Fold this protein.
Amino acid sequence: MLRRLNSYYFRTRRGHISLVLTALGALALALFIGRTFVSPMPRQYKLDFGNAQWIETPNSAASAYFRKDLFISSPVEQAWIQFAATGNYDMFVNDVRVAQNSIPSVRITNVVDVKLVLSQGRNTIAVYVPGGKFDGPPQILVRGSYTVAGGSPVEFVSDSSWKVSGTPDGIVNGYSWSSQELDDTAWLDARALPAGTGFTSVQRLPFDPELIEALPSAQWISARMPSRQTSFLYQLNLPDGSSQPWLQVAANGPYDVMVNGTRVATQPNPVTAVLIGPQTPIFLEPSTVVTKSSAPAATTPNSTEPGSIQPSANQPRTTRPRDEGYARRTDPSMQSPSTQLSVPPISLPTAGMPGLLSVSPPLQPSTPQLIPYPNSVGVQGGAPVLLAYDISGWTHAGANSIVVRVNAVSDTAMLLAAIRADGPGETQVHGTDAQDWRTVIFDPTGTQQPPAIPLVVGSYGGPPWGPLPQVVADPQILPGSITRATHQWAATIIVVMFCVFALSISASLICQPLTGCTFEQLLSYDAILHLPMLAAAAILQLLAFDVRFPVNWCYSFEITIGLIALLLVSKLMLLFARPATTGEPDLALVNRPAGMLDPAPYWFLIALGVVTVGALILRAHNLTAFSIGNDEGNMVRYSRGILRYGFPIVNNGSFTKPMTTYELTSFPLALSSLIFGHTETAYRIPALIFGTLTVWLVGWAGYRMKDWRAGLAAATIYACLPAPILWSRDGFYPSQEAFFGLLTFWLFFEALRTRPINRRYMTLASIAAVLAYFTWEGSGFILPTLFVAVMVDRWGETDWMTDWHLWRCFLIVAAIILIQLCYRSFFTLPDFLGIVYDLSEVTTPTTVFLERLVFEPGFYLRQLLLSENQIVLTFAAAAGLLFAINSRAVRYLTVSVIALVFFYTCFLPHYSGRYSFNGVFLLTLAASVSFFELADRIRFADFGILPRPGIFNRLQWVPALVLVLLIGANPFLLKTYRLSADSTYPPYYARLGMTFKPDSRSSDRYVLLHAAPNEPIVTRTPQIFEFYGGKRRPDYSADTLLTAKMFYDGGYSPPHFIDKFLGIPSIANLAQLQDLMAHCSRIWIIRASSGSKLLDSPQVNEFLQHRAKVVFQSDLQEVWLLNGLPGQTVDGCLPVFTRSTTRNEPD
Amino acid sequence: MVALCVGAEGVVKWVVFAVLLLCMPAVLFGWLGCPLSSPVHGFSYHLLWATRIGKHRSIASYGMAAVVLIALAAYGRAIDSFRVIFWAGAALALLDLAAVLQISFFDPVLFRHLCQEEAWLESVASFSRHNLLPNYGTTPTDWRFMPLDTLSQRASAGWFMMGVSWYVVLGIAIPCIIAGWMFTRPRKARMIVIPALLALAVVYLFIRRPLAGEEALIAAVRADSHGNPAQAVEDYRRAMQLDQWNALRIDLRQRIGAIDAGMGRTSTDDYRIYAAENDVDLMQYDRAIAEYQTLAAMGGPVASLARDRAVDLLNNFGLRLYGVGAFGGAANAWQRALNQDPNNWLTAFCLTRAYYVIGHYDESARIARNFLHASDPSYVADMHSDLGDSLTQMGEFNEGHISYYQSYILDYVYNRRGIGSLVGQ
């Protein structure tokens, strides 16, 4: 029979599809069975916040700084804090950073051990929750506890007794906002929310909070004979029903952990506590210990020379702690995850101690950072860390052997360990002791010694190390673990696949005499019966990626059995199968769009209209919720030039600058502002219109390329995707370019449909391509993409190459592109007048893949294909590419997406998330068309069988799968942030409910309200300030990191650098800022909060940190007030800026 | 237009033929993306046997094999044999697979050298970030997230090291396979089965011994933990024999040394490594370095490993001294390191900076000039900035200006040092 199947059935199209469907069903089932029974995911733990309440600022501030003082009477034995925050947080205890994390649009949680940073007396818990990372006000939920010696635990929770402020109201050059010394009586009381609100996306923890919160009941043990290498043995008996055992280990040297003979964890270096930050202890000599902040910040006589700065400890740390261990990384043999984190203290040579050159005191100790990573936590240098490992993957019910092999560096090996396991009804805890644990030490002769009773050295919390920091270890990937996992999964998949195929064949054989159908017909029908189970599995799996569900929620016994039952039940439908009397349908006629000139069905147009109107409402809602952005501000300026001169042109400083890129973008803006006035709404109406029209066009193109189903599905999906919605509320080019880009792709497809190529459509496609190009020059890559598409579309055919009209259109478009490039070269300000290479240099395609500094092959894959809800579309398009490649539309669309990503990645000399926006409609169309193409293929494979009752008819499963596609790609229904390549940093405009652009409107208006006329205003985005400021313009721009283009303006007196947006003087270093201070009483500085440290030089950052104060914060934006010192001048700085009054008038 | 004259089909055919021929020289070189140096010359690197680091030429190389296969594909196109094109494409794909596997598992010395260079590059970036004006124009890299503990991690790292030729070959192989598959009539099952089996065979050939080495390593740790030192040592040695990568790992030597210590064997090389690493943990850097230098001087199988480790420790020591402002001591440590390993790019970079801050501008400039031929533009740009700083201090302003200019030209991506120096900020 198998031979017959192989030689005949599996070689037919119907056989192929049956094979693929059954295999897919088996794979889905294998995933659930594997995750449920073979390799379960870590259990998720819900935090118990008790009586804690969500708290927020009462005055609706964009960001929130929370403080809570605790007065502790005795030394602390144990203390922990559970907390949840909206999107992002920085937590400090007594001015030490103990935790930080960011997952926008999600209520993130954590538990931290804070016993080492709490002390007797006044203590302060401080939490900063920046705005813009969550759809709603910044909130926190806290429950903490501390236990003093001999006392009972004292709990504290978030409530209205907490203090809150919208700005970090510390003391300039004094106490920071998170310091326990700060007097916060002037701060507002927090507003407590009613219980039960805002819990929708509160995340669960992948570890048991008790590992942090409970004191381990264990003792330090060692071998009775002094030995530097000792194995500690324990026999762990787990009753049936136990789950997720954890092993906590602290040792005085490197160690390996073996469970049932398998190594589950290893620490090749002593795991000790180290404070990261300026308070890091440095052991200069055995008796001399200093901290980084108290160590002399050595400078040299040349420290002010170009290219050198003070090697101060107080530089901002923008990198992860693992960067600290760079010295260790030089040895690849030592590169295990643990070795990358350690920063052991150093000893200087006793002889010939190098002299410290010209010692100067440090500027100011900044906040130390206590980062809770295994090798970088704690404040007591050298204290071991109690690390918790999940050993559930290696244990089983019954007796388990636990071995911890400790290799002490210079002393007798010692161990403190505890095992926690949730048993049925109770939690088992087994700590190291002399009763149940055993030790094995080396015999110098090499013979194995029998296990011996250990010696109890001391109890937990006693000398020499006292209470230990409790940390949960990251999962380790050890040699052999991947091989083991591979074997497990391979075995699971093979077994499940065998069972599913055997079941299908058996069921078909059994039903054959009962139904009168042939065996092959039944096999085909049986394959289709896997689809309900596939749809259910897909939905369940998608929900697991939704942040509102636990990540492993669907891998339960009940659900897996349910899926198996669904599969089995569906086999019963084979009994109702009857041979069909109809023949094979004509694929070319079924559901294809009507002829090119025939109108579409009116109901389709009505439905598409409804979707388009819905899209318009979605986009128009909150149209002006976000402030004008950097690029929008620029477009606005050029559009005003159109109204004034008839051409997009601006006066920047002494330069008159015609627009040389995005030329077509500013014309609709000008028209709109002419009609509706100089308002935010007016400048966004064009984007709104183009965005809405694109939705309609997506639907229409889907209809033309496949059928009404694909059209409606594509339009619905595109209408709801975050990026199209958010770009439709932004006056910059993407919406307009996407419309013309889509028009080009669709018209080109239509042109290719006929033989010879349809001239009218080709001409229209060329016009659309030119319009797209003038909207954004990167659209030029559409041209080679279309070339690739036509090559693939007409694979093996060459007649199109002899089409003269095609070449004529190509030459005209190419000529226009070349003319525009020449025009740009002529009218762009010459390079010798500016400094810094930036976006405005992006002109012609270059071989980016040869530029090691720039090339990033995965950038657009992450931005476009692996971005949250779009991943579902990527899967659908990929399935089409694999299984429906002979469909012209599928081939055209999927190849276009791939080619576009390829060209942008390899030839566009700059990477930006928005560049791939014109791939979104292609991806949507590719997914929809592929999906329905596949659906049709499956449907036709079903032919030959007519199930009598009509249940599981060949059409009825389609809506279920359509729902999977629509729901999976819809951010309003599923928040599948876990699907994203990096859920903590979503691509630009890829997630609803968070702010991507700084709220310049609020900060600019604040400054306008508070700044006196003679007080200078410094902003990096002066064109936005000009938009909101009306007659008042900013006085200076600032770019102290020299990261954006600046031009040298000889027309000023004295000549100096100006910014590229508005042409006002630009502050380029600390000396110039200090010089400004010398002439003004107060300076207002507007800067981005999230990246401010990256946007300004370290010196300026440090200076502002200590001399200025944040007086206002909005989403991703801050206003700093710097008090000047009129009358004092700084030697060696540039001449005082003279305000421009002549050439640089507002347009 | 040409198509109009000579027939479109013929044009396509000969364009494809010409493109394939043009690709042939492009795949001869550049199979490895060496982070800093160019240790492998000639026709890229050897096929199936260990590669020497340094200049050499060999016909039995991946580059040459790729050229032959591309020529075969071109020939297939010329005679309209899509079957030939398909098999040439499949062979090219297998060649690419073998190249990654050879680097990852068959050539540990070269692999270690490449990893070391990448780590140096990361360290240079880190040093700049912490001690100099920020230069954010470092190469976009995922290296820091690439551990090397397991076979799959090593395979990923090996792929990370592949150069442009590898991608060109892949770019040729995939269309050849697709075109060959689509136009070959009749299609045979062996067109899938044979390449798949060959791919499995290639993978097996390369990972057989490393896989066995991994098993031996696991057995060794298990024996060690259960107090069976003799068995553990035997297994550790077996792991090193099976996979030479293990023989280059300090931590395994350290584990054997610990067992030696327990058994009173204090004259073995492994014990010395163990003792030296203990000194490192006890912050006795000078003693550890001296121990490694003694080991290196004694020769033997661990001599080169010990020398590299000593240099690493000296580098490490210098970085820490520099971090607390002991620039003189740092310069001294780095000078010692450079004496032992004159090709250490990290040491050279740090030393130019250390000599600059203690006022030895001529020395700083001399070393900087010697290391301007690195392949990484950001490294060279930083070196040019260092050179410019020293020349400026020496009063050679024209030369200094040229160095700053070179720095900015080479690395224009947020190279604050280069641009800041150039415009006098």
About this structure: Chain A touches chain B through 109 residues (CB under 8 Å).
